[in-house]
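Reopening this ticket.

The earlier resolution said the output was attached, but the attachment link was broken on my side. Pasting everything inline this time so it's all in one place.
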Amino acid sequence: MKKGEIILVKVEKIINHGYALGRVEGKVIFVDGCLPNEYVKAKVLKIKKDYLEARAIEILEKSPFRIEPKCKFFGFCGGCKLQNIVYNEQLKIKKVFVEEAFGRISKIVNIKVNEIIGADNEYFYRNKMEFSFAKRWLFGNESYSDEEKNFALGLHVPKQFDKVINIDECYLQSNFSNKVRNFLSDFLFSRNISIHSLKNKAGLLKALMIREAKNTEEKLVALVTTKYEDNLISELSKSLKNKFPEITTFVNVISSPELSSTLPDRIINIYGKGYIIEKLFDYSFEIYPETFFQTNTKQAEKLFGFVIDYIEEKIEDSKESILVDLYSGVGVIGIILSRYFNKVFCYEEIESAVEAGQRNASLNNVNNIHFFRKDLNKGFIIDTNLPSEKVTVVIDPPRAGMSENTVNSLLRLRPQRIIYISCNPVTQARDIQKLSNFYQIELIQPVDMFPQTYHVENIVILKLFSITS
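Inline output:
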């Protein structure tokens, strides 16, 4: 078998990242562009020692669950890999992702995963989108001027970090978001504003961020540039106010031309508060351009609601207990759960997030919560005389999971329960395996925060079963 060869393959299932797994001549093959149990003609793209990579070029036997994707950019943009599958099947696929992550990594026998909590809104659910400026991805059946080739605002083609698809519609955020993005794209293109290039460190435009509060309808637009251009921003500000009075705040994020990321050096508030307010349950939260906040507000309510129901049912005398919130961000989880505990200790590395958490606590009159700036790569220490049965830890780390030092800190603390929330079941299962000498899994509850994509959020609740070393 060689690169470029056309082969026939019956795929078995979809794995993480949206690829279908099959076998050819006893060798594993990952095929892009097909669904479970489909028989396809595929072109070999890569040959590795242990596996092959291929792309389906013809579906010979279609899955009964295959549907026509809504988005015309499906298959080019990497945002919605599962959009061609009926939604109920997406949920089944994601449940299998979780089962296999824990069965393969944690080595748990007879694992029981609850039915996934699905979303009411399959489309237009995201409260935040970030669109990149770059050179345009060119479709073969279209013609482009030289100016168009060098300007695009949209989403990256997978593995093509220097080019983006110049999208005019996206089904992940709202129609309002589509209108704002398209307006800004036309406005900046018509004025021949330069695109930032990491290669020569030149150019102005990096990205556009749109944030929408689903429960308060406040809206933030952030234009990310390498420097402040007064005339351009003033003109754009007036145009946005006239065209979109719904925008409650507009900011200009200044990000170094030396960086490929949009990490801010400073944020200039052009009009409005500089942030939006979102509500979850009875609580309000300040959301700034750089704030981490669950991107699906309505599903976040289901996720946190599940945790609340568990605490109310399972944790006796929680008002005499302490909650430790690791990777606490702006304090969303700690604040929401604060009414169920005597004290809440929040640990977060990013200084601006700690400060935002303190403001959010004050905004909601939550007085039993304490924020600490702490690099959790170095672990943590809780100064409390309470026995372990009075301590609950909630964890919501980045995709990479917990550091080794944080895992060891947990083992020293040995709280009665650990509520582990993760957007990456693979690293979550890895971390839980390290805790398995002292903790048993009480339940596993997936939540679909990201319809049409292969991503899945997962809650695992662990209970201490041994207090011996």
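Reporter confirms the inline version is readable. The chain is about 25% helix and 30% strand. The longest helix spans residues 87-106.
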